[in-house]
Specification:
This protein has 3 domains: 1-30 and 192-368, no CATH class; 72-188 and 383-403, 6 Propeller (Neuraminidase); 428-486, PGBD-like superfamily/PGBD (Muramoyl-pentapeptide Carboxypeptidase, domain 1, Orthogonal Bundle), CATH 1.10.101. It is built from 4 helices and 28 strands. The protein has helices spanning 2-17, 428-439, 453-465, 476-486, and strands spanning 75-79, 82-86, 93-95, 103-108, 114-118, 121-126, 129-135, 139-144, 150-155, 172-177, 184-188, 202-210, 216-224, 232-238, 243-248, 254-255, 261-265, 277-281, 287-291, 297-306, 312-320, 333-337, 343-345, 354-359, 365-370, 377-380, 388-389, 395-399.
Length: 489
């Protein structure tokens, strides 16, 4: 009786709240950037800054003995309001950003370029400098393309006239070039109705992830008005304007390493509409079940992804209908799952509910944030290797590419020069440089975003120390040397 009631309740919830309409409200989109013809964004005044700390984040402590390599690569994360890099020993954290306001989201390209949100700014950071790509009041979900050339993000209530050739600026997903300029509208949100209409739903879109080759962008669509219950659509938009939509529930989909499919877990414990593990063909939008419920068992799955060995890895627990409830204590195991639904445990541990999982593409293991732990744990797929509790306690975890962040073309670099009293103005790029100089032992005076005599003296001393031509400013060569040394482990 309990099982029949549960299925009936789920069916009612599915019908009334999460029906999708692939044939309607299909966004028209193309990944085409407009000419770079914008004016320079307005300069921030120091009075608009919420907090201006007097010192940069403390540098990582250099060990006296060689570090033991535990992780397959360094990891970027946001911790203590700044981007840091967790080194491969899992213990050392190296500061990467020096921002006066908290960093609240980020993304990294395969070439190493970082983009992140701080205050009302979308910022890019690499060897071409620390530069503001966009200033808007409500930017969210920045996602940089693998080649580091385009950034997708969502805007709420953008300023009128933001788009070239249009007076209006609708809510939706926008694209910006990494070199700056005016953004282009990628997919507009639908106007929000007063009440939900499951027959002709209105949608709000958020960027989730680019495909590994950058040819497609995955969006997540949620029905408007948002009702706080599971269900939505995965929307895959290709460079040729092809749009594929498929029902989605509860969790973000993950691209396979080769970019040919998406995998998605159909929920976990709690009021979910469906359970199991599914594959999505990204060209046709066809969904193929891998793990589904039967008369006796519910498959609870989390964070599935097909890795480089062509096997799906996930955290899975098979639960009897008689034992399941919404309060069920989900304690899955790391597992391999074949396309025909055979589950093979990889490790014996049942540490707890995994909240965040970042798989290594080569299937060497996963970084996991469990509900019962604050720190990120490295779980190797080799059961003979022990788990490693790392020093990472932040969020927005992602592998750091094996590329040099500082190596970039200098053609677009803006030189940071000493300011006269008459031309004194706050510059967040100066604030960033001051933090790096101070961390390296070159006193720039107050870390305040103003390029005064003390900062000029620190820049001069740093240039001499690294063998560059004498000078008081921070040109591209000086910036690249400063960036390289300030992020060294």
């Amino acid at each position: 009786m309990h099982k029949r009631w549960f299925i009936w309740w789920m069916a009612i919830l599915l019908i009334t709240s999460c029906a999708s309409a692939p044939s309607t409200s299909t966004p028209s989109a193309t990944i085409t950037l407009p000419p770079e013809s914008s004016s320079v964004p307005p300069t921030l005044s120091p009075t608009t800054q919420a907090v201006v700390p007097t010192a940069p984040p403390s540098p990582a402590v250099t060990p006296t003995t060689p570090a033991i390599v535990v992780l397959p690569a360094p990891v970027y994360l946001i911790q203590n309001d700044q981007i840091a890099r967790l080194e491969p020993d899992g213990e050392r954290l190296t500061p990467i950003t020096y921002e006066p306001l908290p960093v609240r989201d980020m993304s990294v390209a395969a070439n190493g370029t970082l983009v992140y949100l701080t205050g009302d700014e979308l910022v890019a950071l690499d060897g071409a400098g620390r530069r503001v790509l966009l200033r808007e009041r409500a930017i969210s979900n920045p996602r940089i393309s693998p080649d580091g050339q385009v950034v997708a993000y969502h805007l709420d209530e953008p300023a009128p006239g933001l788009i070239i050739g249009r007076d209006d600026s609708p809510n939706g997903v926008y694209l910006s070039s990494i070199t700056g300029g005016r953004p282009s509208l990628f997919v507009a949100d639908d106007p929000e109705p007063a009440e939900p209409n499951v027959e002709q739903p209105a949608w709000r879109y958020q960027p989730v992830a680019w495909s590994p080759d950058g040819s497609r962008l995955l969006l997540y669509a949620v029905m408007l008005p948002e009702m706080g219950i599971p269900g939505g659509e995965a929307v895959i938009v290709g460079l040729n304007n092809q749009v594929v939509r498929v029902f989605s529930c509860c969790e973000e989909e993950a691209w396979s390493v080769d970019g040919t499919e998406l995998t998605v877990a159909g929920g976990g414990p709690g009021p979910d509409i469906r359970f199991g593990l599914y594959r999505i063909d990204v060209t046709q939008g066809v969904e193929l079940p891998v793990l589904t419920s039967d008369d006796t068992t519910i498959p609870l799955a989390r964070a599935p992804q097909r890795l480089a060995d062509d096997i799906i890895y996930a955290f899975v627990e098979l639960v009897s209908w008689n034992d399941y409830s919404w309060e069920y204590p989900f304690r899955p195991q790391m597992a391999r799952v074949t396309d025909d639904g055979v589950v093979t445990s990889v490790r014996p541990e049942r540490i707890g509910e995994p909240l965040v999982v970042v798989w290594d593409a080569q299937a060497r293991g996963a970084l996991v944030r469990f509900a019962e732990t604050d720190r990120l744990i490295w779980l190797p797929t080799d059961p003979n290797l022990s788990p490693k509790t790392t020093a990472a306690t932040g969020f927005a975890f992602m592998w750091a590419p094996a590329t040099d962040l500082a190596q970039r073309d200098c053609s677009s670099f803006t030189v940071l020069a000493p300011q006269t009293d008459a031309a004194r103005r706050y510059d967040p790029a100066v604030y960033d440089a001051q933090g790096r100089l101070a961390m390296l032992g070159f006193d720039p005076g107050p870390i305040d975003g103003f390029f005064g005599p003390a900062t000029a003296a620190a820049a001069r001393a740093f240039r001499v120390s690294v063998g560059l031509a004498a000078g008081d400013d921070i040109d591209c060569a000086t910036w690249q040397a400063l960036l390289t040394r300030s992020i060294a482990p």
